Every structure is written in C-alpha cells, then in structure tokens.
Amino acid sequence: MKTTIRITVLSAVFLLLWPSEAHAQRRVGKPLQVGVLLGASNYMGDLAKTAAVMKETHPAGGLICRYDLNYMFTLRGSALFGTISGADANYKGIDAGREARNLSFKSNVVEFGGQVEWNLFGYESDRNSMARSPYVFAGFAVYKFNPKAYFEYNAAIFNSIDPNGTLAQYDKKWVELQPLGTEGQETTKYNDKQRYSLTQISIPLGIGYKAQLDEDWALGIELGLRKTFTDYLDDVSTEYVDDQIVGGAYGYLAVAMKDRAREVGKPSAMNNQKRGNEHLKDWYMFGGITLTRPIVGGHRGCFNF
Description:
alpha+beta, elongated
C-alpha cells in the first residue's frame, strides 16, 4: 500500500513538474511580434468645442507589429482604420453660435505609421521578470481622410439658391466636401488658396501599458493622439465666402454645403464671416486594446537555474 502511495505521489509530482519544465523556457534573440489593436477613434477640431465629444466615438482597429531593440525601447509599426466625425448639433441649447452654424462631417481615416515605445519600467517579451511596463510612444504616420456631410433636400429651404431643384438628386446622400471648395479654394478670387490634400502626415503621441500573459501572448491598453498639420479634417477652417464665388466655380451643391444655417431656420452667413479657427490645427486619435505574439525570429532556449 505504501509502495502504491509512493508511486502515485511521485507520478503526480512528475506530471506537475513536466509541463512547468516545458514552459520554463525563454526566447533567445529578438522575435518580431505581430497582433491587433481593437478600440475606438475620435477627433478634436472646429466641430468639437474644447475636446473630443464622446458620442462621436467610433469603432476602430488594425494591425501592429513590435520589435524590442532592448529592454527600454521597442520599435513599432501599425496600419489602423477608424472613423472621425463632428457636428454643431451636439451643442444645441449649449452654444447658440455653433447651433446656428449647423456644420457637420464624417470621415474614414486610414493610417500607416511607425513609432518608438519607451518602456518606462523596462520590458522584454522574452523575460518573465521584465514582462510588464507602462510606456509612452511617438513617431511618424501617413494618413488618408475624406470629409463628407449628409445632405437632405428640402425644396422650401433651397429654392432661393436652386430654383430648378437640381439639388434633389443629392437627397439623403453623403457628399464629399473637399471637391466643393467650401471656403473658396481655387476659385477665381481665391486662386492662391489651394484645396487641402486628402493624404497627409501626422505625429502620433501616446501612452499605454502592456504585459505578457504567457511566453507568447502580450496584452496592452493605450491611447494615442495624432498631431496633424491641417485644419481641414472637418472641412472647416477660415471664413465664409460669397455664394456667387463658390457657386460660380462649383455649383449649387457647394453653396448648400458651405453654409448650412438655412437648414435650421437661421440667417445665411455674411461674406468673410468667421467659419472656423485656422490658428488651431485638428487632431485625431486611436485608442484600445492590443494583443500581440511572436511570429518570426528568436528561438526557444532553457532558463538557467
């Protein structure tokens, strides 16, 4: 009986130790880690009063890859997709000026970037003793956007600028704003004002926290802001331009989309009246959960006990 108990105990110890020994390995060399970011996107600009509006938050996601240069710094690349939007209607009853302006937009954002993560406590994915740390990151990105606005046709409202009803064809459609030159871009009077490019660069800046779940998988959470060099993520920046100037170059639709006060029963804006604040550039942001694992490089070796 005692012999049977000894054999049983030894077998149990062996079974408990064997998987531990199998997992008591570390990666030798630096692997390339690849994974996903799943979260949300938002923006700050002329259609967000002082900060991002929570109700304008949208799902976002993409792919990320990491390579540890050493325990303090990690190189990272990413390809992310999200949506940004804003509307003066969010300030109804709060800001009479914005409510009367009645501008709005939505845009998809596709971003390809590279950053450096500074691991504040030190981090190496192949060492359990240094497998969690907060970090800050900064880098460079190229992104593409295309602001649009939703148009609803009402003959009574638009008859004064479009007596023939040609705008009816755009009813309940998302209209691209950049081609319309809503602030007089590339018109005869403002031919020195170029239309903004839909592909631009940004500077990602952010914070996060990551930790190894096991010898392969790492989980993290982060928030990243993007400093841009444009004030036109939302197609709003400078001043209103006379209807005849914009309409003569781009038609009735441009007139309708540049000044939407008439849609809420407010007087149309005056020529040269302030439309936005060109001195403050727009920002967009991505944030969420990251999940990565090694796929290339490095090989497993045993720990030294």
